[in-house]
TrEMBL record:
Name of this protein: ABC transporter, ATP-binding protein
ABC transporter domain sequence ranges: 2-246
Organism: Pediococcus argentinicus
A single Gene Ontology CC term: plasma membrane
Record membrane topology: Peripheral membrane protein
Length: 247
């Protein structure tokens, strides 16, 4: 991202300059946590990368491609997203297997015969068995009958089966109870490491921002105020982040 700006209601009394000259390089394999207070611009940043919002100025490139003006569908070749609401990432009336088939074949022409592929079914079982949530035994269960945690993990698997260039995690554990949230976050980290994925994660949980990933950004008033990585990030504690917020 180079010089990205986003303004809502420009030229009116309600004008709000949300993103202010955002410059951000994301390297292959980066797992970046983004924190900030309410209104800091976290969601706007993620939506601008995803294509839900189009930047008013600046450029966004991924894998050498300028995607600045592309809509969500035009970016799906490179970007996958897991939402806060587990229901948004899955089709409730389709089975676990059907949801996964759509996800793994999303770059090809749709064909219902995919649902009958034994090789894909075995592959899904192998992937799900690693998660130790029993989903490998529920391939024929409609997604709407899964628990919130199971459905969010299904969303995560769907988003990562095609190994996207960039995975966006939009507070994807916020709607879950604390125990399930912790379990899903551990599985998230496992999947990211196993597939060497590049990740941008929005979170309100400072403990997750500190514990997971190799980089941490803090947004404040539409600007990146803190950008730490490596040993500098590992040495941070929650008290340090609180001081940063206050300052």
């Amino acid at each position: 991202m180079d010089g990205v700006q986003k303004v809502f209601f420009p030229g009116t009394a309600n004008q709000r300059h949300i993103l202010k000259n955002i410059n951000l390089n994301i390297n292959q394999g980066d797992f970046i946590s983004v924190i900030g207070n309410n209104g800091a611009g976290k969601s706007t940043l993620l939506n601008t990368v995803a294509g839900t919002l189009i930047a008013d100025a600046g450029t966004i490139e991924i894998a050498g491609n300028d995607i600045t003006k592309k809509p969500v569908a035009g970016r799906s070749k490179w970007i996958s997203r897991v939402f806060q609401d587990p229901k948004l990432g899955t089709a409730g009336d389709l089975t676990v297997e059907q949801n996964l088939s759509i996800a793994i074949n999303r770059k090809r022409h749709f064909n219902l015969t995919w649902f009958k592929s034994k090789s894909e079914r075995n592959h899904f079982k192998e992937v799900l068995a690693k998660l130790d949530m029993g989903l490998e035994n529920r391939l024929d269960t409609q997604a709407k009958y899964l628990s919130g945690g199971q459905r969010q993990v299904l969303s995560l698997i769907m988003a990562t089966l095609s190994k996207p260039n960039l995975l966006l995690l939009d507070e994807h554990t916020a709607a879950l109870d604390p125990k399930t949230s912790e379990a899903v976050m551990k599985l998230t980290n496992q999947i990211i490491k196993e597939n060497n994925l590049t990740v941008l994660m929005i979170t309100h949980k400072m403990e997750d921002a500190l514990k997971y990933g190799n980089r941490l950004l803090m947004l404040q008033d539409g600007e990146i105020k803190v950008n730490v990585s490596g040993d500098e990030k590992q040495q941070l504690e929650e008290s340090d982040l609180m001081e940063m917020f206050e300052s």
